[in-house]
Amino acid sequence: MADQVVKALVFDVFGTVVDWRTSVAAEVDALAAKKGWTLDGVEFAMRWRSLYAPSMRPVRRGEAPYRRLDDLHRESLRTVLQEYEVSLGDDELEHLNKVWHRLHPWPDSVPGLTRLKKKFILATMSNGNVSLMVNMAKFAGLPWDTILGSEPARNYKPEPVVYLTGADWLGLDPSQILMTAAHNSDLQAARDLGFKTAFILRPTEYGPNQHKDNEAESDWDYITNSMEELADKLGA
Amino acid sequence: MADQVVKALVFDVFGTVVDWRTSVAAEVDALAAKKGWTLDGVEFAMRWRSLYAPSMRPVRRGEAPYRRLDDLHRESLRTVLQEYEVSLGDDELEHLNKVWHRLHPWPDSVPGLTRLKKKFILATMSNGNVSLMVNMAKFAGLPWDTILGSEPARNYKPEPVVYLTGADWLGLDPSQILMTAAHNSDLQAARDLGFKTAFILRPTEYGPNQHKDNEAESDWDYITNSMEELADKLGA
What we know:
The structure is a homodimer of 236-residue chains. With 236 residues, chain A is α/β, with parallel strands linked by helices. Chain A folds into two domains: 8-19 and 103-233, 3-Layer(aba) Sandwich (Rossmann fold); 20-101, Orthogonal Bundle (DNA polymerase, domain 1). Helices cover 46% and strands 11% of the residues of chain A. Chain A has a six-stranded parallel beta sheet, sandwiched between helices. The longest helix of chain A is centred in the N-terminal third of the chain and has 16 residues, at 20-35. The two termini of chain A are 26 Å apart. Chain A binds chain B through residues 70, 121, 123, 129-131, 133-135, 137-138, 144-147, 151-152, 169-172, and chain B through 70, 121, 123, 129-131, 133-135, 137-138, 144-147, 151-152, 169-172. Chains A, B: It comes from Thalassobaculum litoreum DSM 18839. Chains A, B: InterPro entries: 2-HAD, HAD-like_sf, HAD-SF_hydro_IA, HAD_sf, S-2-haloacid_dehalogenase.
């Protein structure tokens, strides 16, 4: 594979571009206050998110057909609500489920992406479905050129087909694409397929006591602390 | 189907948003001058485009597997070059084939889309493949939120699956989506599926003597002369 100039950047989104933890927690806390529930929004968010990887596993293993993340999120949300012994009407549940469409970016994300967009194609490479990613982009001002990732491939990262479908649709060799993520495992999966890699440290994605992805665990092509630092390093 | 408020606009692109005829002709004329060919760039462009609909037909009829438009364009280009009794090296042919990635917008397209983007989700609903649409957007400054259309559905308009896959990926009912095109047949196909419709008159898409799509042939929801007029009518 020729070592070619980077033409496109593709991004993990949850945790790398947006702060899902405090965004979900804030909406849950507001809802709890309205409903008179006694619960902690951050804990609720963390529990909900903890069901994310298990919910995708049957699809990745080929044991279940593809279902979009909105649907997996809804199933996990029902589980968490039951655990907390609280309930919501259908419309309220649907609205809360779509909190993942309303996540706030890290402070450096929009300024950094806006600079990077002038020089590169920018696309998502997320497990979020297309409408989730599009609505989030409108909400948060994320300047994607297009949405790639799980729904086009009908599978979930880190399955190779997700990354490779994205490269194929961009008409690029993986060596022309820089996969950007705050998660070492995501970068390793992409590197194994020939993608360039950029790590962005997000030391509070899981809160103040985060015990994974606190450092780059390999010699990724770029290792940075923010989207703006990545733009600096790429001359954007 | 509920008559709901429009949330997203999806666009035909060739002819509706960009002026393929003069864009292709200009590059062909420049190449002809360089090569010493005696030919007319506009005629060449028109002949190349005339092979567009026939090239998609076997896919639409299910007689051939999906191939992306770049590949159909390349096959048609080889035919046209043979007809003109001229030839190109592989790299030159590939570069000329990608002239469809470098089409110039009509003067009102970028200002109109920029206004519309503040109020609506904007996506392509074109037969162009994803990389063609992404590269054209970078070249022409088209502010799409995402690329939909033929490649996600692995088929070509006016097959219903192309429009319906787009609606499904946006998580919207067709009645929440405004299909925008300069071609009456495209709007009819979308209306038949429940989409809202907007006609933009492009009276010189095929040159000064254009003899089709010179007027709205049905009572489309919006009938306009430019993207900016559409933005006016939608309060964007």
